[in-house]
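Notes from the 1:1 (GR / supervisor)

We went over the backlog. Supervisor wanted to see one worked example end to end before approving the batch request, so GR pasted a single chain during the call. The sequence is below; no edits were made to it. Supervisor asked that the structure be written out right there so they could see what the output format looks like.
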Amino acid sequence: MRVDAGLSKLLGLSRTAVAAIAEAGDVVIDGRPAGKSDRLMAGSMLEVTLPAPERPVQVIPVPVDGLRVIFEDDDIVVVDKPVGVAAHPSPGWTGPTVIGGLAAAGVRVSTSGSEERQGVVHRLDVGTTGVMVVAKSEHAYTVLKRAFKERTVDKTYHAIVQGHPDPMVGTIDAPIDRHPKHDYKFAVVASGKPSVTHYEVLEAFRAASLVEVKLETGRTHQIRVHFSALRHPCVGDLTYGADPALAKRLGITRQWLHARALAFDHPADGRWVEFTSDYPDDLATALEGLRTAS
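Structure output shown during the call:
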């Protein structure tokens, strides 16, 4: 295999990160520095010097416009996340975050997890809006983490996808991993992690369909990747092959994807709780545009 591909699998790093290590002269094969496109051969001596670990990203309390608390008690806080907001701080992200917004509002969250991800038990993409839960107590963090891992949380999304999925009710069962050529994207690949998406068409329009999606697994970009693989990308999702002309006509500048509902056993007493989120203005306007045109 190529150095960047092989070391990416071996070390669990992105190919971009491995390429940077190779360019710094820190990948050595049989005593000679190797480039990212050189080949790894059986029987060779491989030496890799990893860069110093990055400093932890700190949570900075900053008010977030549009971040609305749907529910809060001693164990959890459920929010309606607006577009353009990340779940938590990360290297390279300088915009607003849910955790930073909660901190600014005086909401104390669980201290479990790494510093920048404390309380975060699941995430939504920066460009995806909707309902999200954050753990406030250590007990809630442990219980919710287990619930997401064991797939007992009911996650419902609404998406508008291009065209008309056939059948109208179906399951997409296809493994997902990082895109083999573009680190910022994900793709259906044979060696990926098991990923299962259930969907049902709620409304069909001339150029697109409103679908309800239930996630069995929670891979990064899962809905976007799965529908793109079916040749029915989310409207407005230019990263995964959406038609820019349709997005422009509907006035949408991001993927039409919304975390509509979240339901789970409350970590304190086990009662079943469910929370919902209405469509934000940009998605509602695009949906009305499709209905009017049909």
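Supervisor's comment: The chain has a mean pLDDT of 93.
Batch request approved.
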